[in-house]
Structures are given as C-alpha cells and as structure tokens.
Amino acid sequence: MRVTVKRLRLWIVVAAILLLAVLVGFFFYGRYRYRRIARDLPARLGMNIQQTATGFSYSQSSQGHTLFTLQASKEFQMKSGHVLLHNVDITLYGPPGSGRKDDIYGSDFDYDQNQGIAISHGKVRIQLEGLGAGAGKQGGGSRPASGVNGIQVRTSGLIFVQKTGQAATAQPVQFKLPRGAGSAVGAQYDSRTGVLVLDHAVRITTSSNGKPATIGAAHATLQRATMRALLTQATVDYRTEHGSADQATVNLRKDGTAERIDAQGHVRMETNQGAATEAATGVILLNAQSQPVRVDLGGGTTFAETRPGEKLHGAAEEATLFFSPVPGIVNATEPRHAEFRSNVRLTEEATQSTGEHAGSAVRTLEAQHLSVDLAAAAKGKPVEATRAVAQGNPVVTMRQVAAKGPGLARTTRISGDELVAAFGAGNVLRELNGTGHTQVENVSSGGARETSRGDVLRATFGQMPAKHGPSELQASVKPPVVPGGERKRPRGEKMQTVLETATQDGNVVLTEIPASPRNVTSAGAAPAEPLTAWAQHAEYRAADEALTLTGHPRMRQGESMQMSAEKIVYHRATQDAEGEGDVKATYAQQAQETARGAVPVMGGNGPVHVIAGRAEMRHAAGEADFYGAGDRRARMWQGADSLLASTIEIDRKQDSLRAWGSAVQPQVLANFTSAMGATHQETPVSVESSKLNYSDRRRQADFEGDVTARQGDEAIRADDALVILKPAAKAPGARPAKANSEIERLVASGRVEFTQPGRRGAGAKLVYTADDGKYVLTGTPKARPRLWDRVHGTTTGAALIFNSQNDSVEVSGGKSSAVTITRAPR
User: Fold this and answer.
1) Angle at 420 between CA 416 and CA 423, to 5 degrees
2) What per-residue confidence (pLDDT) applies to 809?
3) pLDDT bucket at 729, cuts 50 / 70 / 90
4) In principle, which of 56, 96, 666, 746 could form an S-S bond with 661, CB 3.0–4.6 Å?
5) Which long-range contacts (CB under 8 A, 24 or more apart) does 562-569 make?
6) How far apart are CA 239 and CA 208, in angstroms?
7) Position 139 pLDDT exceeds 50
8) What angle do CA 290, 293, 295 make, to 5 degrees?
9) Which residues pair with 296 in a beta bridge?
10) How far apart are CA 346 and CA 390, in angstroms?
11) What's the pLDDT score for residue 484?
12) C-alpha distances in Å from residue 112, one per residue of 34, 49, 85, 117, 332
C-alpha cells in the first residue's frame, strides 16, 4: 500500500507542475495580450506611426491605460502589400493596478494586409511573468523583467489569421520554468474562444525532492473560459516509477493554482520493482499550495505488488485517499485515511521454495467496504496502516500449504457483519475485533473442520520467527511469540503473524467435524464423532490450544455424549475436556458401538447420566473422571441403577469403571435392580464399599473395603465382595445386547456378617446364588461359621446354607458330610 500512495502523490505533484508551468503561465496570460496584437496591429498599421532615427514604434491605449507597445528597428513597405518588420519587441501590460507586463520578441515578421495573415520568420521568444509577480511597470522599456515565477518560451513559424482569430505553428515549442523546462511540437490558438491546442509530443522535465521527473502528453488543450486544461495520453516518469492515463483534465483557480485533476481511461501507476495501480477514473483535489487533499479512484480499481517470495494484489470498484498536513514540513501533505468500496478484495501471497518449512501462505480480505487509518511511524518514514474497518459481509481467509509433512494444507476464515483490525509498527496485525454473526472456521486438507460462531469476536496476534512452523508452536510450552510485534529482532530475521488469543461472546456455537472416513489412516479405526459446544462466552489460547467456555456451556460428541457445567475447558490439540461446577453428562446407549468403546454401567440399558462437581475427559485414552464437590458425591445412573462416589473413573476402551470415596465421603454406593431367587422377582440391591472396580467385559463388580450389601430386609457385611452378573443376551450376528443388571452370583469374603429378620450369621466367606436364592456361609478351620436365630439359638458347622425361598437352613458337618436341615421362622 505504501508504494501505491507514493505513486498517487507523485502523480498529483507533477500534474500540478504541468498545470502551473505550461497551461497557466505560458498561455493563460500570453494568449489574451497576443490576441489583441494579432487582431488590431495589422488592421491599424499606419495609424499614429512615427518614423524616428531608431526605427519603428507603435502603442495602443484605452482610457489612459497602455495595452501594449510595439517597437521595431526597421519597417519595409512591400509593393505586394506586405509589411516587413525587423527586430520586433512587443510589450503587453496587465489590467490597471496589476503592475504586470509580458514581453514578446521576434527578429522578423511578415504581414500580408490583403489576406490578413501574419507570419514570423526566425525565432520568437516570449517572456511571461508568473502569477502574482507584479514585477513590471507601466510605460516603455525594452526587456521587462518576468518576476520570480517568470516563464520563457521559444518557438518559430508562428502564423496568425486575422479573420478567424487563429494562430498556429507546426514548429517545436520550448519553454523554461522556474523549476523545470518543457517542449511540444505544433500549437494552435483561437483568440476568439480562448482555446489553445498543443498538437503533440508535449514534454516537461522538472524535479521532485531533488530528483528529476518527466511529464508527457500526446496532445494538450487549454480552455480560457472554463479555466480548464485537457491532456491526452498523459504520462509521468519519476526515478523508478511511471504513470499514465488516456486523458487528464486540470481545473484551475482564479490565481492559476490547480484545484482539481480528473484522469480517465486506463489510469495507471507502476514501478520497476513490480508494483502497479490501475483504475478507470481518478479525481485529485488540491489545496492552495497544490498539495493533494483527496484522491478518488473509480470504475474498477486494482493494484498489485511483487517482491521476492511475496505478492500483493487487490481490487475494488472505488477507492478514496484523504490527505492531511505533514507535521514539521511546510506545504506538504500525506495520506491519513483510505476507503475502498464495493467488491473489495485484497490478497497477499507468500512462498518459500526451499528449506524445512517450504510451502506457501495466502491471506485474503473480501468486503463491500474497507476503511483504513494511516500514520507515519516516524518523521520522514512512509505511512502505515494503524486501523482498518471492513463492512458488508467481510471475510478474512488465511490458507497455509506445506510442501511436505503432515497437514499439507490448512485454511482459516474469519467473518462477521463488521471486522475491525488494529496494526502495530511495520503494518503488523495486533488485534482483530468482529461484531454481528462472527465466525471463525478452520479446515484441514484431510477434511477436518472447526467452526466457532458468536455475536462478538476479539482476537489478538503476536510475531514469531518464520522458521517456527505451526507444529513447533503447538509443541512449545512457551513459544517465542512477540506480543504486538514489538520485540527487537536480528537484522534480516523473517517474522510471521500468529494468533495468540481469541474471544467470542453471545450465543457462541462451536463445532468440530472430523476428517472423512477415507482419510482415517489407522487400520480398522472408526471415524471420530463430530463435536458441538454452546456457551455465552468462549476464550481460546493458542499457546496451549485451550478453549474455555462459560455462560451455561454444554457440549455434545456426536450422538454418544453430552456434558454441561458452569465452565468447560476443551483442548483442541488433544480433544480432552474438563468441566467445573454443576457438571452434568449423558452417554447414549450408542456409545457402546463407538471407537472409544462402551460406557460401563453395571450392565443396564438406556442412556447413562452423571452429575458431579468436576469432570475430566481424556479423549485418546477414552477415559472420563467425575468428582464430587465437598460432601456431595458424584452420581451416575442408568434407569433404576445408580452409583454414588466421591470419584468415578470411566474407561471406555476397557469397558470398565472405578469408584472410590474420600475423607469427607468415604463410601461408594451402588444401587441396581436384579431378578432374585427361583421366582426371578425384580428386587432392588444396594452395595456400599470404600472402592469399586467394575469390568463390563467380565461382568464383574469388585467391591473393596467395609462392604455392605442390602436386598430388602437382608444385609451382608464383609471386607470385600465380588458381584458377578449374568452374561448379556446375544442377538444373532451382533454384539451382546445389554440387559438389566441380573446378578448371577455374589461372593463376600473377610469378616462376613449376614442378617435377616430374627437370624444372624457370621463367617469368613458367603456365596449367594441368584437362581436358587441360596446363601452358603463358610469359615476357616480355626473359625467355623455360626448362625443364631430366635428358635434354635446358635448353630455351627462346616457350611451353613440359607435358602431364601423357603427360609430353611442346612448345616453341613464337614468331613462326615453330615447335614442337618432346620426350618426356623423369620
């Protein structure tokens, strides 16, 4: 953009010089005075003529004011009617009070009185005073001074036709300006209409900032009545820059300064370094010092710049530049604001063909309106962007393509109703804010897509050495990111802009769609499930790729899992997640068919629900930990089955779960319903312990430490207990179909106590079989099992068998195999 601004500024300066030098100075003042001489002198020759010793002299006055004087050293009256004048000196005076005069000199003039045609022979020199010079004095004088802004003109072969008031020459015209010189070939002037035409090869050489500049035109037209000059095929060359237009029109003020320049048709500025700007039309407004105050480009504007490894190009239907005075520099302006309108598109391309990080990057901005604030970083430095506002469905697209390695391409799109960017020194992007339907989308070459939407967006950026690739940034705990690009870096070190943080507010929705199945490379691996999250506030940190959701956040993984909490932290690199405060999670039954395995729930059916104070989910391991809060235990349930514990750990890959207590809530409580006894009546069962290990594959639940199991009015207490569930029913050609939690067998061991109403037993081991409803209580060789009831008192034996169906008790004697059957009322 800086190159474009310089080119526009140069166009303005040189166009103003052309105006002041050629159009105004040369013809605007000279043509009026010469018209009077050309028209009146031949017709009135012979009036008020005095023949003196020094030659011929003639003057004409009006109301006491001298209009012009004509002096010649010799006069020759020819028989053909021609009059020859030698060494002619004509002085023209300005209006009364102006104190201005111009001087025209020619060696010989031939005037045909019959045809009314005057022709100069030899050279003609015209000395014109500049605007406002006022150096001359009324009266005679041979060579009046031209003033500080004087213009000297030389030509030959001038022909004037009195009847039409037209003057013309086909010869070269040369002029000398206060700050340059110029030339043209051929000229035509109509004294009646005040229109002057320079036929072709118009050329002016001047300087800008001490450097030569050349202005050219194929054709030039001046209109006195409208104070306007028209140039066709106008060009300007300055150092390494070139400008051109099919047509340029200069509008003048009354004091002769340029007020407005209109360029039309293929308006173009370019440099030999590969920068170019084109437009169909251009309008330049100038102040009284001929400095630009505004530039308008229209009819389709394009610009492009090419550097080694970089390319910048853009387009818009219209563009406007606003200028302001330069502090500390007199009569100088510089651009302060730029606007691009309708179908705005800016593209920056960067490539690196060799090295470890070979590849390309493309950044594009599309909008209907773009407004840019500009400022100079330091005195004498080029202006740079400080703030940019894009409106009208703006979209910023960033695409990175690596020449080799994983993740060959990645595309990021940022959009909203309005995007506002803030820049640091060096046009470095520091912050991007969006309002209204903001969206950030990332798409990988494998087809994975990440999208976040919200009402408001704020993103901050830093600078990082270009040798660091995205993978290095993710792997580094503290990447070498420079906030705002302020770090002093070694000379020549290339830097790249990277995202630091991103925040979205208001109706935030995030989605992650995994790569398509054909891009899954792991043998036999099922495609990952899409993830969706909702919140009112979202914060993303690029350093650890952590996304924090607050404001009633919730997330859903495909159809298998949902979670809500007061705060959710999601790690995009690992797809891990943490929930804090009032955690609620739901696993659908379909989860048992996913690549991450089933959700073990003691063999039940239907969705699984979990509530907790905190949760941690490890995606790759397929693990989830749920924690209670204070004296509130985490709770997990499925239908009528439930589990309460201070900590519940789910391993979906192993189809297992673990639960344990804490100092505040040391017990784990499991509740489930099972068909018990010979009648297979559904009966609630609860088990308390210090720890629980459950494997759905083995259909076993291992309760450890201070176990208490209850079924109706029966209770079992032991150090440990193993609950074995019945195998799940199998559907033909499918995985086992989950059934209700049917207990097959319960084995309690270590200080076993068994209680029923009116009966109590104790031993080392108790085995319960659900099909027949029998309890077998055994002891050790040193401590046989004991039974106490109200009828028989205490009974012992090698084994005591309780039958819950008929309330009978069998006592086995051990080696003698003696068996005693006793029925006792309960």
Assistant:
1) 140
2) 81
3) low
4) 666
5) 562/586, 563/615, 563/617, 565/615, 568/533, 568/535
6) 10
7) no
8) 105
9) 283, 320
10) 11
11) 41
12) 18, 18, 12, 5, 53
Q: Comparing C-alpha atoms, which of 335, 345, 398, 413 is closest to residue 372?
A: 335
Question: Which of 300, 239, 310, 304 lies closest to 276, judged by CA?
Answer: 304
Copy the structure tokens of residue 505. 């507010």
Q: Residue 706 carries which side chain, given as an amino acid letter?
A: D
Helix, strand, coil percent content, the chain, rounded in steps of 5? 5, 60, 35
Distances from the Cα of 500 to the Cα of 76, 432, 471, 473, 737, angstroms: 92, 11, 15, 11, 48
In this prediction, residues 473-481 reach a mean pLDDT of: 36
Nearest to 239 by CA among 18, 10, 16: 10
**Local structure of residue 417 (DSSP, 8 states):** S
Interval 208-216 mean pLDDT = 73
The CA-CA-CA angle for residues 500, 501, 503, to 5°, reads 165
- The listed range with the strongest mean pLDDT (158-172, 243-257, 521-535, 670-684) is 243-257
What pLDDT is recorded for position 477? 33
- Percent of the chain at pLDDT > 90 equals 32
With left for phi above 0 and alpha for psi between -120 and 50, is residue 552 left, alpha or beta?
left
pLDDT at residue number 603: 57
Characterize the bridge pairing of strands 786-789 and 799-803.
unpaired
Q: Find out whether 614 and 629 touch, Cβ atoms under 8 Å.
A: yes
Question: Left (φ > 0), alpha (ψ -120 to 50) or beta: where does 467 sit?
Answer: alpha
DSSP β-bridge partners for residue 181: 176, 205
* Cα distance between residue 709 and residue 701, in whole Å: 12
Closest CA to 689 of 652, 649, 658, 656: 658
- Number of C-beta neighbours around residue 64 at 10 A: 6
Q: What is the mean pLDDT of residues 111-134?
A: 70
Quote the DSSP letter at residue 436.
E
Contact by Cβ (8 Å): 57, 45: no
State pLDDT tens for residues 305-353.
Answer: 887 777 888 999 999 999 888 877 777 788 899 999 999 999 988 776 6
pLDDT at 632: 93
**Binning pLDDT at 50, 70 and 90, where does residue 824 land?**
very low
From the number of C-beta atoms within 10 Å of its C-beta (0-12, 13-18, 19+), residue 781 rates as exposed
In this structure, what token pair is assigned to residue 807?
């309330």
Indicate the SS3 state at residue 822: strand
Token pair 């940190």 is found at 541
Contacts of 32 (CB under 8 A, 6+ apart): 194, 224
**Nearest CA among 555, 550, 502, 500 for reference residue 530:** 555
pTM: 0.73
At 499 the three-state DSSP class reads strand
Residue 508: pLDDT above 90?
Answer: yes
Assess contact for 470 and 481: CB atoms under 8 A.
no
Q: Which two tokens stand for residue 734?
A: 């499918």
Higher-scoring residue by pLDDT: 601, 32? 601
Summary mean pLDDT of the chain? 77
Chain centroid to CA 217: 42
Dihedral angle, C-alpha 296, 301, 305, 311, nearest 10 °:
130
Token output for 194 = 């005040």
From the list 404, 334, 357, the residue with the least C-alpha distance to 10 is: 334
Distances (CA, A) of 448 to 369, 528, 669: 32, 10, 42
How many whole angstroms separate alpha carbon 208 and alpha carbon 236? 12
For residues 150 and 142, the answer to whether their CB atoms sit within 8 Å is: no
Alpha helix ranges (H) inside 413-523: 470-475
> Tokens for 87?
């060494």
φ/ψ region of 559 (left if φ > 0, alpha if ψ in -120 to 50, else beta) reads alpha
Average pLDDT over residues 347-363: 73
Closest by CA position to 26, among listed 131, 107, 109: 131
